[in-house]
Structures are given as structure tokens and as C-alpha cells.
């Protein structure tokens, strides 16, 4: 990898989880692996994705993000003109700040940070979800410099996460939908597969979308609209339960170590967690994406 920067298309993807694999596959479809110019950074222990990545022609570099120093990460990042961070907070608090600091120290030409979520400029700090505060810090770090070009891709919540039983907002088996804060509050969601394809398209776009926040959306809806979609999917009425702000705040205060309750509070907003689909990159470019009814139809067929 010592000559990676001799190829201006050389890209490092940090992480190969659900989102990382989606991004890698999308970049692979654009021919990057055929050029031998796609590398993924993984934890030291080989796992089930190793063979898949090698079969795809993806190179692998290993380091522990939780214990690695900023300098050690910068030494790796310096080999790549483009770095895409597809790993979240598995390394613990401060991981995203450390990765970003290493990217800037390394002089990476183009960086896509782990900002695949809400609009942190609008949400700001003090939302009740500490990881949101760290994301605001990352934006401040990027905007305070001009050597590294960056592109933030706002995707909303992963579509699958909205229906996670542990998240508790939708219970498809029991036919229950909870609204966070208000039935009029809205959410934007996008599938990881679509995020991967859209990330690849955004990186390939001319003119380049440097130093911008780019919005994408698989679907945007109110909680009332969500309940309606679940009813149509199930073919029967659903129970609609409002978790108002008083309840969400008291639950988060009573269970300070419960990450899901913090997420409930963080997403119980009328701004920053949703944007009109009509104003997104995917609509402007005519790129088809999976909305909630289509996603529900897919899981029915599994």
C-alpha cells in the first residue's frame, strides 16, 4: 500500500458492517476493486467478512480503532486520497473525534465522515443523546480547516432500525406503533443498501460535492403516516400509542445507561431528523430508492 496515493482513485473504507459492506459493494460495482484501489480497515481479528472481501478483490488493513493512537491511524490514512468512515461508535466515546483528527493530521484529500444519520447542525448539542454531541464536534473540526475536503451524507435513520424490536417504536407482531413526542413529528429513513449506492454516486458526481452536507432519503413520513403504512402492510388496524416528551424525559432520566431510551429522546423532534424527500440528492438525480412500503414488502417475502 505504500504507493496508494499514486492512484488518485484509491479509497479506504473504515469498517465492513452492514453499512460498510453496502458501500464496498457499491464502489465495487463502479469498478474500484478491478483497479485494485479499494481497501477496508478492519479490527485485528479475522471474521466472516474476510473471505468475502478478498474474493471481491478488496485489500485489507487491520487496526483496533478503540486502542489505536491518533498517530497510528494517521500513518494508515496518509496512504489514501479518499477515506470513508463506515464504523460508528463501537470504539466507544471519542472514537469519531479521534478518527477525524487522524484524517486531518494525515492530510487526506477527501473524507466522508460517519455522519450517516440526522442533521446534527439542526439537532445541535444537548439533545439527550451524547453521541449526537460528538457528531457536532466532528463537523466543527472539519469546518475549522480547509486542507481536507469533506462530504457529509445525511440519511436519516436506517430503515431496519426503525423496525428493530429493541428500539420499540414498531411492533409488527403485536401490531403496535409508538409515536415519539408527537404524531405529527416526522422521520427520514434510508436502507443501508441505498446509502451505499448513493454514497458511491455522490463521490462520483461532477462537479464534486465538496464541503457540503448532502441529503438523501428512502422515505420521509410522520408517525401518523408510519402507523397508516404498518396498517396497510398488516391488513388490520394497529394500536397507536403516544410517548410524549414528559414520558421520554422521565424514562431517560430513570435509566441513564439505556441507549435506546436516549435514542427515543433524541429522535422525538420536529426538526433535524427529517427532510422533504423531494429536496434530496436521490430525487434530483433520479436514483430509485426503497421506501417503507417496499421495505415491508421485502421482509414479508423473506
Can you tag this structure with a few keywords?
302 residues, alpha/beta, 3-stranded mixed sheet, globular
What does the model show?
The chain is α/β, with parallel strands linked by helices. It has 13 helices and 13 strands. A 7-stranded parallel sheet has the order 3-2-1-4-5-6-11, with helices on one face. Strands 7-10-12 form a 3-stranded mixed sheet. Helix 1 (18-29) packs across helix 8, helix 3 packs across helix 4 (95-106) and helix 4 (95-106) runs parallel beside helix 6 (130-143). Mean pLDDT is 92; it is low at 1-6.
Distance N to C terminus:
41 Å
Contiguous helical run count: 13
Oligomer: single chain
What overall form do the CA principal axes indicate? globular
Q: How are the strands ordered across the major sheet?
A: 3-2-1-4-5-6-11
Q: What is the strand tally?
A: 13
Helix content: 25-40%
- What letter string, H or E per element, gives the SSE order? EHEHEHEHEHHEEHEEEHEEHEHHHH
* Class by alpha and beta content: alpha/beta
* Radius of gyration, CA atoms, in whole angstroms: 20 Å
Question: Residue-averaged pLDDT, rounded?
Answer: 92
Strand content: 15-25%
Unreliable segments of 5+ consecutive residues:
1-6
Biggest sheet details: 7 strands, parallel
Amino acid at each position: 500500500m505504500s504507493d496508494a496515493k499514486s492512484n488518485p482513485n484509491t479509497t479506504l473504507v473504515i469498517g465492513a458492517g452492514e453499512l460498510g459492506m453496502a458501500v464496498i459493494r457499491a464502489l465495487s460495482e463502479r469498478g474500484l476493486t478491478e483497479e485494485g484501489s479499494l481497501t477496508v480497515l478492519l479490527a485485528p481479528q479475522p471474521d466472516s467478512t474476510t473471505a468475502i472481501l478478498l474474493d471481491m478483490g478488496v485489500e485489507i488493513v487491520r487496526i483496533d480503532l478503540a486502542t489505536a493512537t491518533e498517530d497510528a491511524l494517521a500513518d494508515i490514512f496518509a496512504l489514501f486520497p479518499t477515506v470513508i468512515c463506515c464504523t460508528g461508535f463501537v470504539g466507544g466515546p471519542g472514537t469519531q473525534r479521534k478518527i477525524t483528527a487522524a484524517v486531518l493530521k494525515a492530510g487526506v484529500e477527501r473524507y466522508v465522515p460517519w455522519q450517516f444519520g440526522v442533521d446534527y447542525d439542526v439537532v445541535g448539542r444537548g439533545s439527550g443523546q451524547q453521541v449526537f454531541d460528538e457528531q457536532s464536534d466532528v463537523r466543527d473540526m472539519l469546518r475549522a480547516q480547509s486542507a481536507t475536503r469533506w462530504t457529509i451524507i445525511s440519511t436519516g435513520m436506517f430503515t431496519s432500525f426503525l423496525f428493530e424490536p429493541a428500539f420499540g417504536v414498531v411492533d409488527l407482531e403485536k401490531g403496535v406503533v409508538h409515536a415519539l413526542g408527537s404524531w405529527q413529528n416526522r422521520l427520514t429513513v434510508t436502507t443501508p443498501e441505498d446509502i451505499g449506492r448513493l454514497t458511491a454516486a455522490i463521490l462520483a458526481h461532477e462537479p464534486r460535492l465538496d464541503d457540503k452536507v448532502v441529503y438523501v432519503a428512502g422515505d420521509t413520513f410522520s408517525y401518523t403516516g408510519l402507523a397508516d403504512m404498518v396498517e396497510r402492510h398488516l391488513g388490520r388496524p394497529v394500536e397507536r400509542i403516544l410517548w410524549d416528551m414528559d414520558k421520554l424525559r422521565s424514562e431517560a432520566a430513570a435509566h441513564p445507561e439505556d441507549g435506546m431510551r436516549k435514542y427515543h429522546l433524541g429522535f422525538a423532534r420536529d426538526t433535524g431528523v427529517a427532510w422533504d424527500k423531494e429536496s434530496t440528492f436521490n430525487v434530483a438525480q433520479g436514483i430509485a430508492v426503497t421506501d417503507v412500503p417496499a421495505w415491508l414488502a421485502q421482509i414479508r417475502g423473506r
